[in-house]
Amino acid sequence: MTNQKMVEHWDNIYATKQPSEVSWTQENPKTSLDFIRSFNLPKQASIIDVGGGDSRLVDKLLDEGFEDITVLDISEEALKKAKARLGEKGKKINWVVADITKYNTEKTFDLWHDRAVFHFMTTNDQISEYLDRARKNIKANGVLTIGTFSENGPKKCSGLEIKQYSEVTLQEQLMTGFKKMKCITEDHRTPFDTLQNFLFCSFRSQPNEG
């Protein structure tokens, strides 16, 4: 699928469906928050939520006092919904409409959070482009938190193929530049009362050697 087709796909979903009609909706992104809280980041820490879309995570991060938050999504429609929900508070957020594999910025982040974007990287080129940006834009000793469908999870999402991961295979993808901190699996209950098994892992960015 071309980049433009991907944009159209996600814009159409966010323009035509309510949160109760998409599987990834979480009223309370507890697992992501638990990981983030465990890092004891200062409130000035720079945070990016990759594929944040209309997620409630940004609301919670604002409530907890974080001051430097970027939300990136390929869908402008998704970010419009999030902005409308947050109202005046949304002006505190750096909103970025971009495909993460084509995102170029000099900004670096203390925390890179991704729930359910990386598993849409199904080709070696996509994976390489994604990880190149993570290595470039996460600070030395910064943290990457990533949630993907596990080997017991769905094989598709919103009609698109995904790549399932185990703790071992995800760690293999991140061997260069990152050190695993923690992994868990959990069942996400969708608004349709079905279960999706996720793998969540955190990694520490390793300073370049030599």
Tell me which CATH architecture applies here. 3-Layer(aba) Sandwich
Task: Report strand order across the widest sheet.
Answer: 3-2-1-4-5-9-8
The number of helices is: 6
> Shape, please?
globular
- What can be said about the biggest beta sheet? 7 strands, mixed
The gist of it:
The protein has helices spanning 3-16, 30-38, 57-63, 76-86, 124-137, 167-173; strands spanning 46-50, 68-73, 94-97, 109-115, 138-149, 156-157, 160-161, 178-189, 195-205.
Characterise the protein shown here:
The chain has 210 residues and is an alpha/beta fold. It has one domain (3-205): Vaccinia Virus protein VP39 (Rossmann fold, 3-Layer(aba) Sandwich). It contains six helices and nine strands, in the order ααβαβαββαβββαββ. The chain has helices at 3-16, 30-38, 57-63, 76-86, 124-137, 167-173, and strands at residues 46-50, 68-73, 94-97, 109-115, 138-149, 156-157, 160-161, 178-189, 195-205. The strands form two sheets. A seven-stranded mixed beta sheet has the order 3-2-1-4-5-9-8, with helices on both faces. It is globular, with a radius of gyration of 16 Å. The N and C termini lie far apart (39 Å). The model has no long low-confidence stretch (mean pLDDT 91).
